[in-house]
UniProtKB/TrEMBL annotation, chains A, B:
<keyword id="KW-0238">DNA-binding</keyword>
<dbReference type="InterPro" id="IPR036271">
    <property type="entry name" value="Tet_transcr_reg_TetR-rel_C_sf"/>
</dbReference>
<feature type="DNA-binding region" description="H-T-H motif">
    <location>
        <begin position="29"/>
        <end position="48"/>
    </location>
</feature>
<dbReference type="InterPro" id="IPR001647">
    <property type="entry name" value="HTH_TetR"/>
</dbReference>
<keyword id="KW-0804">Transcription</keyword>
<dbReference type="Pfam" id="PF16925">
    <property type="entry name" value="TetR_C_13"/>
</dbReference>
<protein>
    <submittedName>
        <fullName>TetR/AcrR family transcriptional regulator</fullName>
    </submittedName>
</protein>
<dbReference type="InterPro" id="IPR009057">
    <property type="entry name" value="Homeodomain-like_sf"/>
</dbReference>
<keyword id="KW-0805">Transcription regulation</keyword>
<dbReference type="Pfam" id="PF00440">
    <property type="entry name" value="TetR_N"/>
</dbReference>
<dbReference type="InterPro" id="IPR011075">
    <property type="entry name" value="TetR_C"/>
</dbReference>
<feature type="domain" description="HTH tetR-type">
    <location>
        <begin position="6"/>
        <end position="66"/>
    </location>
</feature>
Length: 207, 207
DNA sequence: GTCTATATAACGATAGAC
DNA sequence: GTCTATCGTTATATAGAC
């Protein structure tokens, strides 16, 4: 294995991605980015228009990676419920928060249409993707037909995003998992033909 | 009505509360606080230990008010489901985000046990309060006994907190409402004996 | 392309007059 | 108690050498 020599713009983007995740936009200074990237002032302003331009490149990449990671699970094998469960139970750096969702609490990101756009598009895509899976599950009889796919999708995404809030408030990932288990118990397929009425049969804990 | 003359410490706390809500801790400077409060540097450092001390007073008050506002609905009239619904549908400044929850995305708040404590306590209190209401609903047959009260409570709080994220990402309060409707449809009492699946208002006691 | 030097403003806090 | 003056540091950006 050769050690890969990464270009300076590449290092700048990656350093910015890390810092935006850790400290947000207003909490990240160009100086901190340059130190982490091992670059000088000149490099940053040569390749990018400044802090906003560099942040835009970083946010776009993070958004793209986040979508790809979600699709890897949502487009995987299993029934609709199983794929949603896999998405909800996917391993996460819970205490670090969502690298996309956390940006919505950044006043300068929300104030900029450019910076907010990738965030909006990512969460919107995720909601649509989940909505179609819920509807697929309804056709298969896995979910009650009375449910609204888009509403349930929004609830799923919100539970994940809010789970990060609960976890970071308490300093423990447990709260995230508790909220996810609650949602899964509400979504758990009730057998359509009149089987045992036990809810949450596929949730391991709290039998 | 006499116009009330508010003390300087009072104005400082209120200005800080507003700015913490709008811009978070790292995004709020002492200078901005002093300008909004109409006070000079000396006043702030005379009454408080500095930015962290002032922020702590502001966060504590916001936490207290948030709990009181939630209790006003959760301790109100109606069945357990109805009280939860009232809490979820309560009017909110959705696009401004949650003044308590948004602080969890602030690196300096999370890094400080003092500043994080009121946030943690508020969300923890809310989860416990909701859990007891869910369990009450289970005793009344309004919710399935297989559900776990604490899990459902965490899901409810997470849906609200995540709803703010969706709303701020899209720049519209609609996404919040969509997620709430999805959660309510999952929680809606299904008649225990196999009645009609109409949701909402058929409650046994305390109508 | 990358670096250092520099510029202007803001940040967070202190000192001391009144 | 409140004010202004000041301090040392950082934020964000530009200039110009190499």
């Amino acid at each position: 294995m050769y050690s890969i020599r990464v270009s300076t713009p590449e290092r700048l983007i990656e350093a910015t991605r890390e810092l935006l995740w850790e400290r947000g936009y207003v909490g990240t200074s160009p100086k901190a980015i340059l130190q982490r990237a091992g670059a000088g002032q000149g490099s940053m302003y040569h390749h990018f228009t400044g802090k906003p331009g560099l942040a835009l490149a970083a946010i776009r990449r993070t958004a793209q990676e986040t979508r790809a990671a979600a699709e890897a699970v949502l487009g995987g094998p299993g029934s609709p419920y199983e794929r949603i469960e896999a998405y909800l139970r996917r391993e996460r750096d819970v205490l670090r928060g969502c690298p996309v969702g956390r940006l919505t609490m950044d006043p300068d990101v929300v104030a900029s249409d450019d910076l907010r756009a990738p965030v909006d598009e990512t969460l919107d895509w995720l909601r649509e993707r989940l909505a179609s899976i819920v509807e697929e599950g309804q056709e298969l009889g896995e979910f009650p037909p009375a449910l609204d796919g888009e509403e349930i999708a929004a609830t799923i995404v919100a539970t994940v995003q809010g789970g990060y809030v609960l976890a970071r408030a308490s300093g423990s990932a447990a709260a995230f998992d508790t909220g996810v288990r609650g949602l899964l118990s509400l979504l758990a397929p009730r057998s359509p033909a009149g089987d045992s009425p036990a809810r949450g049969s596929s949730t391991p804990t709290k039998a």
